[in-house]
Amino acid sequence: MTSLRDRLHRDLTITRFSWAVQDHPQSRHLTRELRRELDTTAAEIGMARAIADLGSPRALADGHLAELDSPAPRWTAGAVWGGIVLAFVLYTQLAYAFGTLDALAGLAGTDTLTAHREVLGARITFEAGPDGLMSTLRPSWGWLLLHVLAFAVPFLLGARAWRVRPARRRPRVRPATGDARA
């Protein structure tokens, strides 16, 4: 039976391997195979020794990737980058809304104040008064496009989507094998 520390070390090694080998079309199969082999070897010689004998997970992944004709897209990395940028855009919008509502609440006192903003065709209404705070959003196509692009552009760049197209190989030019001066 392996200890918690050994299992965590194994899982970290497998995660590093799976991240490095994600370009491979059979990456999930390779990751499952590595987990199975590590568990089998660990039962014989111990988890720490099995991981040490494995070597660098990145080097192991590079060996599998060298078998491919051309690199593949990294969809997981693209999804992570797209999610990070979209989350940043949404957080920024939320911070702006809270700041506007806070300012209106401070200015309103016992009255009700309303502010209207229009961004990319979307109409946003902020209202603050003694009854509470409220904001409403009437989205537009421009607003939707902003969020789609905020995800899509980093997704495509992070995934290296241009790798979907097979690389064009240039024919190799063989050097002449004789003396050109003769």
Let me know the largest β-sheet: 3 strands, antiparallel
How many β-strand stretches?
3
> Helix coverage percent of residues?
55-70%
Strand order of the largest sheet: 1-2-3
Unreliable runs: none
Number of helices: 6
Judged by helices, strands and strand pairing, the structural class is alpha+beta
Strand content: 5-15%
Number of domains: 2
Determine the N-to-C terminus distance.
76 Å
Run of helices and strands? HHHHHEEEH
Nearest-angstrom radius of gyration? 28 Å
Q: What does it look like?
A:
With 182 residues, the protein is an alpha+beta fold. The protein has two domains: 4-65; 75-162, no CATH class. It contains six helices and three strands; from the N terminus they run αααααβββα. The chain has helices at 4-20, 27-45, 47-54, 57-65, 75-108, 141-159, and strands at residues 113-119, 122-129, 132-138. It has a three-stranded antiparallel sheet. Helix 1 (4-20) runs antiparallel to helix 2 and helix 1 (4-20) packs parallel to helix 4 (57-65). The longest helix is centred in the middle third of the chain and has 34 residues, at 75-108. It is elongated, with a radius of gyration of 28 Å. The model has no long low-confidence stretch (mean pLDDT 85).
